[in-house]
Amino acid sequence: MTTPFRIAIAGLGTVGSGVVKALAARGDDLSHRAGRALQITAMSARDKTRARGFEITGWRDDPLALADSDADVVVELIGGDEGIARSLVERALSNGKHVVTANKALLAKHGLALAKLAEDKGVSLKFEAAAAGGIPIVKVLREDLIAHGVDAVKGILNGTCNYILTEMEASGRSFADVLQEAQAKGYAEADPTLDVGGGDTAHKLCLLASLAFGTAPDLASVAVEGITHITADDIAFASEFGFRIKLLGVARRIGERIDQKVHPAMVRARGPLANVSGAANGVSVDAGEAGSFFFSGRGAGEAPTASAVIADIVEAAAEGDQPSPVFGRSAASLTRLEPADGKAQVTPWYLRFEVLDVPGVLAAIAGHLSEAGVSIESMIQRGRSPGEPVAIVMITHETAQAAVERALKAISASDKVRTRPCMIPMEA
Ligand code: NDP
Ligand code: HSE
User: Which in 6, 111, 371, 398 has the greatest CB count within 10 A?
Assistant: First the structure.
């Protein structure tokens, strides 16, 4: 009889709890799929006394002790790109244990070194849950859409931001109010500025880019902008124009260069990305001659994330001492592509200015835009409040980002302009 596959779990919060509960509920079927009995042998978290709604097995006060236990796989669900999570993963791999993790921050920063370590030790390092929650996009890019190469990966990769933008549009509630709700539902990171500032999307994007293009994760070259400056007005204007605002991660291969960026974008209300709602994620992949593919589903929260973690545990058990390469190819073959000039890409832009309603302001804005070669397609000024701040919204013709930024820099210098102008690219 084969020996059980012993599982040590570090971190028993939203995701860790989901993993323990799913293993308890469906352990028999999952063991059949793995070809071995799956058995949790050790657990660790910060607070031993916390009620968690399940029985604790093999408690260790120190999560690092899991790396020295008799476990076959260490499941790291603590989080963070350094500290205990990094030490645990490194120690577990060094000790010849498979590792399953949902920690995109860690892999975005140290993915190449950890992949090398896993390879040297002949063990698995799996991270399906780290990008797009329950959507099996890591497996798709690692194993499935490989025949014709991938030209671009684009998607909504952060459930918290998508939940906030969806709820702000549907209910008109404030940003802060909806963020709190997303935290209560277990979608947000321990530090939610990673979500709303775009950092979490950047972590996921550089992992997907790595799988798609055969590059080492390159977080430093991702241009990142979050959603904290998006107002209820922007969302309402977008809806009037037939668009929705989504936080997108976009990675494109352009010849021997790579463009990776995270930013809010206006997507057409009838398109697939606009209809990814709440905490769901959506990812489109342009796979050369094979065509375009779109994947959507729950991107954050207990059950969808646990689903991806469990798939990895079962795969690691089934593969045994024949692990598949971490990023789909040997770590030594992962290349580095120079960043492309992402600001050269042309698109129409939504621009919003908060200005004092006094004579000459509009002419000055139009003048700076014209000087930078930015042509305006349409304009709205809502209401009139002489001497008070009002919003002026403009849609431009297709223009490079660099030109719009040049104009906005000049416009921002005016004392009639009250806040930093908002610029959002629009789907052409
Ligand atoms: P939680 O904050 O809910 O849980 C974190 C767990 O780690 C808790 O059990 C906590 O212990 C434990 N922990 C924290 N610090 C320490 C420490 N120093 N020593 C020991 N244990 C510690 O996080 P999530 O479950 O939401 O996230 C876990 C990982 O999964 C992160 O990498 C996250 O990015 C990733 N992820 C999360 C998703 C989600 O939807 N939540 C989706 C995809 C990935 P205690 O319970 O005692 O406080
Ligand atoms: N904080 C992340 C999100 C969790 O909101 O998408 C899933 O990775």
Answer: 111
- 365-384 pLDDT tens trace: 999 999 999 999 999 987 67
Instruction: Please measure the distance between the N-terminal and C-terminal CA atoms of the chain and give it in whole angstroms.
Output: 60
Instruction: Give the ligand 2 atom nearest the CA of 158.
Output: 6
pLDDT at 1 over 70: no
Would you call 343 a catalytic residue per the annotation? no
Q: What are the pLDDT digits (tens) for 41-50?
A: 999 999 999 9
- Active-site annotation holder among 116, 126, 139, 204: 204
387 pLDDT higher than 80: no
Distance between CA atoms of residues 315 and 329, nearest Å: 17
Phi, psi of 426 (to 5 degrees): -115, 140
The protein residue with its alpha carbon nearest to ligand 2, atom 4, reads 300
Question: Mean pLDDT of all residues in the chain?
Answer: 96
Task: Tell me the per-residue pLDDT of 125-170, one tens digit each, with 9 for 90 and over.
Answer: 999 999 999 999 999 999 999 999 999 999 999 999 999 999 999 9
Q: How far is the CA of 12 from the centre of ligand 1 (A)?
A: 7
Of 9, 12, 15, 103, the residue with max ligand 1 atoms within 8 A of its CB, to mutate for a pocket test, comes to 15
Strands 280-286 and 152-156: antiparallel
pLDDT of residue 389: 84
Pairing of strands 376-381, 389-396: antiparallel
Q: What is the DSSP letter of 72?
A: S
**In 320-357, alpha helices (H):** none
**In which element (H, E) is residue 338 found?**
strand 338-339
Neighbours of 144 (CB within 10 A): 14
Backbone angles phi, psi at 347, to 5 degrees: -160, 160
